[in-house]
From TrEMBL:
UniProt protein name: MSHA biogenesis protein MshF
Regions crossing the membrane: 7-27
Keyword annotations: Membrane, Transmembrane, Transmembrane helix
Length: 150
């Protein structure tokens, strides 16, 4: 009889363990995408805030074409948006690292996938592990940031 009780106890513990493990797996699968989206929303807002902060400093410093901030020389558009140039073209990697110093978002690293530069549009696209695309752009010299999910 004692063996029977132990067997029953073992079966109940196994069933409870399987139910808890299943619940945790489903919970993780449901909450991780929402957390990832929230992290990218925060990153986008921080990038916009950072660009606006640099623009405010530009306005307060009599609108120079270049300004040194924390040992980094930052170029500005005529409207005061910070840009990082290399050979008179936008340097996408440095532009994002200026506005978002972290090297990743939600543990996901990025790489530059596209750069466009013409009279009305300057744009850099970055792809993160997992397929999320971040687009920094100057459209008609107005700064913006967009996040596109796969």
């Amino acid at each position: 009889m004692d063996t029977r009780k132990r067997l029953r106890f073992f079966i109940w513990c196994t069933v409870v363990f399987i139910i808890m493990a299943s619940w945790l797996y489903v919970w993780k699968e449901k909450t991780e995408p929402a957390s990832e989206r929230a992290a990218f929303v925060v990153a986008k807002r921080q990038i916009l805030n950072s660009a606006n902060t640099y623009r405010q400093n530009w306005l307060l410093n009599k609108q120079p074409s270049m300004m040194g901030v924390d040992g980094v020389d930052i170029q500005f558009t005529k409207q005061g948006w910070p840009v990082m140039l290399k050979n008179d073209r936008i340097d996408c990697a440095k532009w994002l690292s200026l506005l978002w110093p972290d090297e990743n978002v939600f543990g996901k690293k990025y790489s530059v996938i596209d750069m466009r530069d013409d009279s009305k549009l300057t744009s850099c696209e970055y792809i993160f592990t997992g397929g999320v695309v971040l687009d920094l752009h100057l459209i008609n010299m107005a700064f913006g940031a967009e996040v596109n999910y796969p």
